[in-house]
Amino acid sequence: MKSLNKKTWKVISALVVAASLVGCDSGGGSNGAALALAALSGNSYEATVIINGKLTQSGTFAKTNCVGQFPANFNSSPAFTKPLFVKLTGSSIVSGGTDFTVACASGSGNNDAAEFNITTRIGTSNTNLKGHVYSVPDTITCNSSSTNPCDVAANYTELIGTFDMAVDIDVSDPTNVGQVTFSNETGVIDPDVAASSAGLQITGTFDGTTLASDITLITAVKGVYSNPGATIGENKCDSIGTPEIVSGNITSNKTLGAFTLLRGTVTVTNGATITVPAGAVIYGERGSAMFFIGANLVTNGTAANPVCFTSAQARGSRFPGDWGGLTFIGSGNNTRVAAALTEGTSPQSYPLSSGSSSVTLNYTINEFAGTEVAPGDELNSYSQYAVNTGNYNYVQAHRGLDDSFEWWGGGRGASAPDVGTAGSPNLTGTGGATERTFKGKFLLGTGGMDDDFDMDEGFSGSLKYIIAVKYPKVCGGTPSTDPGGMEMDGVDGTTKTPSAAATHEPSNPFVDQYTLIGVNETASYAERHREGMKGLFLHGLAYKFKQTVKCENATTSGTGYGDSASIIDGLISDDTSLLDANATCTVTNRTTSLTSAPVVSITSTQNNCGFLGFKPDLKTSVAGSLTWGGAPASGTLTDFDGTTTVTPTGGNSWYANWAVWRAR
User: Fold this and answer.
1) Count of other CB atoms within 10 angstroms of residue 92
2) Which of 120, 289, 335, 412 is deepest in the core (most CB within 10 A)?
3) What is the 3-state secondary structure (H, E, C) of 20-68?
4) Which 8-state DSSP code applies to residue 11?
């Protein structure tokens, strides 16, 4: 008999993957909400049950890293990491209820004998299920070049333990552990685990007496919106109030109330300023958007009371592309010598021949934006066309159908931009980081379908402490054909070769302290530099993209473009391949040592689509580089000058509590 206790240690993470199906739509793009509503209209009952637990014992767990617990060849190189399979059976099960264990005790030893996660969907509010725990028999050989050569259910044939599980769903308290009761646990916990030669016997219930328990439980019923452990921002964005309806053209200053409903394309012109007070919620109907054409926006959110732009669809049925987003048009620097048109149902000409726009955002969330106007033509959460004056502080773009943030030009300093070199960045000098007229600090692009930070056509602003996080397809929406963390074009496709005039210089931003986390989506990349792109990129982390850095020379980008000449200094990633052979960017101080996400936690958030209380900790976890990335784990946070201390609410966890994570 193999050890139920020592093998159950690994049930948790693999089973958490099933949690991604909770509260998430598998439909695509702007049709997602309609698909979800159709699914919710059925009469069949369905509840998802997710149980996480940890069993502990007195003393130290003797079997470090599973050595000796399983067939000897499990511990060859690479080590086998999924030694146990759990299966639930019962007539009420709709789906789920099976998965592998995925963790062993650490080499240092501890008293954690078992961790587990069981996820299943049931067709009734109360039921009794039977659990079976299987291992791989010693006769199965698992030593091969594959990471988990035994990782198929058919190999798990040795029954080593059973248990009964009674479920009684309580929609009023979805985290109440009393909804699930375990009983009749049987199975031998290997005698070598405990000091006692008799070992531990799984008997009784997980009641903290015979075995110490640490059980958490979350249930979700189809058609019932539930987001336990919601952040301040999620509660704000999900709040329901009686809104003022705003439509048409606004030509004079206006302060929005607590709740506003956008109807159709709302344009703000004539130099007018829209002011949004702390805690205000702005709902966007289908087909709505806000265009600031030579006009201004100021949001006054706080960490305790953020501003939220969100979909007007029902809570739990909001999806990427529900509404248009925010677009700003100015007359600032841009590489175009002739006016072009913006994206959107009512495209506008840019750059403006006169008049300017400015945008100041403080603790602002924009979610479920990106209306698809035509195939390949979607609005972004935040779009800036030739806008020189801007200041973003604590701003999130969440679950947009297209880009999270996109800039077409703008942000140029007092003279020709010069962000210096990796060894000597220009922070406070002429044209340096502090002189850039667009600055963005503490920015989040989360769960978007295309690029998170898209810098085009001469954008030369300054960005610091920025984080991009992709969600898997199961969370809903259809990713673009090449979703990236940062996509950057130096000049536009008509001008191609920029003129000598300062207003036509290629993109040359200053970007410092960034974290880019993907999901290995097809053709994805962490950074793409093309079409004469320049810029200085410092202290970056990138993980789970098909390619980390794609840098294109003039030939690759197309006839007429200049070489991309970005400087990338300090980049830690999991991609062992180097740049393309024809790359023209300068990359220094790069390492490819990552074998897991470079932050404290993100996988559970991605896998369960931001629901069920799994909020991420995005602080850097890379040993020796804890001051790098968008949320450094240690060190003082500083402004663009590199010396002025910045002290956000939450400290280095500046995103905590106010940002949103649920996928719909």
Assistant:
1) 17
2) 335
3) HHCCCCCCCHHHHHHHHHHHHCCCCCCEEEEEEEEEECCCCCCCHHHCC
4) H
The residue among 53 and 482 whose pLDDT is bigger is 482
- What is the rounded CA–CA span in Å between residue 565 and residue 97? 52
pLDDT above 90: residue 51? no
Q: What are phi and psi of 608, to 5 degrees?
A: -110, 20
Q: Residue 252: phi, psi to the nearest 5? A: -135, 165
Percent of the chain with pLDDT over 90: 54
pLDDT tens string 300-353: 999 999 999 999 999 988 999 999 999 999 999 899 888 899 987 778 999 999
Segments of 169-304 assigned E as strands: 180-189, 200-201, 212-213, 216-221, 244-250, 254-255, 259-268, 273-276, 281-284, 289-293, 296-299
**Residue located via tokens 């702007």:** 30
pLDDT band at 176 (very low <50, low <70, confident <90, very high): confident
What distance in Å separates the CA atoms of residue 600 and residue 616, rounded to the nearest whole number?
Answer: 8
DSSP code, position 605 = H
pTM of the complete model beyond 0.90: no
* Average pLDDT, rounded, for the chain: 81
Q: How confident is the model at residue 663 (pLDDT cuts 50, 70, 90)?
A: very high
For every residue of 425-454, DSSP letters joined together read B-SSSTTSGGG-SEEEEEEEEES-SS-SEE
Give the Cβ contact number of residue 251 at 10 Å: 13
234: alpha, beta or left? (left if phi > 0; alpha if psi -120 to 50): alpha
CA distance 276 to 267: 16
Q: Which alpha helices (DSSP H) does 231-377 contain, by range?
A: 232-237
Identify the bridge partners of residue 326 per DSSP, sorted by sequence position.
290, 382
CA atoms within 13 A on the CB side of 501: 9
Listed in sequence order, the DSSP H helices in 128-248 are: 232-237
First CA to last CA across the chain, in angstroms?
45
Identify the pLDDT of residue 155. Answer: 76
- In whole angstroms, what is the distance from residue 550 CA to residue 95 CA? 41
